[in-house]
Amino acid sequence: MTDKPTIGLTGGIASGKSSVARLFAELGVAVVDADALAREVVAKGSSGLAEVVASFGGEVLAADGGLHRERLGSIVFRDPAARLRLNAITHPRIAQLSADRILQAHTGAAPYVLYEAALLVETGAQKGMDALVVVAADAELQVKRLMQRDGWSESDARARIAAQLPLADKVAVADYVIHNDGELDALRARCAEVHREILQRFGPRAA
């Protein structure tokens, strides 16, 4: 078992977490993406998908037998009880798979592991991390990105943002904040700066 640091990475919806994660990966950091694992645990043919279908019905299946994520998302977004049912199915699976992948990443050459997850602060999982990086973006820019990226209406985009924990609450518990409101070069420079600070902070543990 290695003693390398595990750094959490989170932020608001459409704040640019994935872009930041890619820039850290370019710096040689091992990235474990919880969103990708969330898709994996309900992949076609998985026990997770079978349990989701048993709970929500065949309407959440796509024509190819995989999960129709948009249809399921519309159900759980408007129904808190349904969201809790879904979380009870997926969260234990994601947690176990995350732990396995983080452990695997620790055995590699990367100086530390960056665990990218949207709900780190909401679940309190950041308390188990060595440090927390929060990606922040202006709320109006988040709305614009959601409309462009996902084809949502402005009202839907604002509703999704409003349903999340306020970004200020995440920033308040962050060790490092990366603002993603400008050009890619500025974002790359800030990521490199935070990377250097993490290496300095953890010293031999990140060597």
List strands and helices in order, with pairings.
Blueprint: E1 6-11, H1 17-26, E2 30-33, H2 34-40, H3 47-56, H4 69-78, H5 80-106, E3 113-116, H6 120-123, E4 131-136, H7 139-150, H8 154-162, H9 167-172, E5 176-179, H10 184-202
Parallel strand pairs: 1-3, 1-4, 2-3, 4-5
Helix pairs in contact: 3-5, 4-5, 7-8
Task: Provide an overview of this structure.
With 207 residues, this protein is an alpha/beta fold. It is 55% helix and 12% strand. The chain has helices at residues 17-26, 34-40, 47-56, 69-78, 80-106, 120-123, 139-150, 154-162, 167-172, 184-202; strands at 6-11, 30-33, 113-116, 131-136, 176-179. It has a 5-stranded parallel sheet, sandwiched between helices. The chain is globular.
Which CATH architecture of the largest domain would you pick?
3-Layer(aba) Sandwich
Which superfamily, in CATH terms, is the homologous superfamily of the largest domain? Answer: P-loop containing nucleotide triphosphate hydrolases
Distance from N terminus to C terminus (CA atoms, Å) equals 15 Å
Number of strands: 5
Q: Which structural class fits the helix and strand makeup?
A: alpha/beta
> C-alpha Rg, in Å?
18 Å
Give the key terms.
207 residues; alpha/beta; Rossmann fold; five-stranded parallel β-sheet
In short:
This protein is α/β, with parallel strands linked by helices. The chain contains ten helices and five strands; from the N terminus they run βαβααααβαβαααβα.
